[in-house]
Amino acid sequence: MLRMYEFIEGLVEQVNPAFVIINANGVGWHIQISVNSYEAIKNLKQARLLTHFAVKEDGQYLYGFAEDAERSLFRLLISVNGVGTGMARMILSSQAPNEIVSAILHGNIVLLRSIKGVGPKTAQRIILELQDKAGKIGATADTGMPASGNKQIDEALLALQALGFQRAVAEKALLKITNNNKVQMTVEEMIKGALKAL
């Protein structure tokens, strides 16, 4: 398949857990990202993201990935019937890429079903269709940096809204997990915890 864009590199003008705007030679690219990629680039002034270009009925979208393993997994996921780019991004924002690969390889349907929007049939299809392919991906997890304060909660809230959740619902989930957790949480941990609570 012919790929239109392979990567985009430039100055990071704006970044949050849902998207990044990269200034590449005076052109601002709006690129949708997962929580994992956000954790990898959030402190960078300049970044290079591998990209996937998708054309839908409602527009054209660029998805960015800090590592080739994550992009490869994203492309495998959207090859499965019933898994669109939105669900694939949700999966990659809910678990680290290596955890998704491990779940597929070991047939861990429980982990896949714990992800918001992934039903039992979709989880089964992902495992059946990708079990032979997922092992080729050398995915690694991003551990993230400790974070605390309103800024992190706002970023997590923005990401949840970008994933399709109503603000009030997302706020309630974030409030629940942050109140129940006495340890400082990263934005990534907040989002993953909220996705499990929703």
Task: Give the arrangement of secondary structure elements.
Layout: E1 7-15, E2 19-24, E3 27-32, H1 35-41, E4 46-56, E5 59-65, H2 68-78, H3 85-94, H4 97-105, H5 109-113, H6 120-134, H7 150-162, H8 167-180, H9 187-197
Antiparallel strand pairs: 1-2, 1-4, 2-3, 4-5
Offer a concise description of the structure.
The chain is an alpha+beta fold and 198 residues long. The chain has helices at residues 35-41, 68-78, 85-94, 97-105, 109-113, 120-134, 150-162, 167-180, 187-197, and strands at 7-15, 19-24, 27-32, 46-56, 59-65.
What form results from the Cα inertia axes? globular
Looking at CATH, which topology of the largest domain would you report? DNA polymerase, domain 1
CATH class of the largest domain: Mainly Alpha
Superfamily (CATH H level) name of the largest domain: 5' to 3' exonuclease, C-terminal subdomain
Main sheet makeup: 5 strands, antiparallel
Number of helices: 9
Structural class of the helices, strands and pairings?
alpha+beta
Q: List segments where confidence is low: pLDDT < 50 over at least 5 consecutive residues.
A: 139-149
What is the number of independent domains?
Answer: 3
Overall mean pLDDT stands at 86
From the coordinates shown, what is the CATH architecture of the largest domain?
Orthogonal Bundle
What is the N-to-C succession of helices and strands?
Answer: EEEHEEHHHHHHHH
Distance between the termini: 37 Å
Assembly type of the chains comes to: single chain
Count of extended strands: 5
Radius of gyration: 16 Å
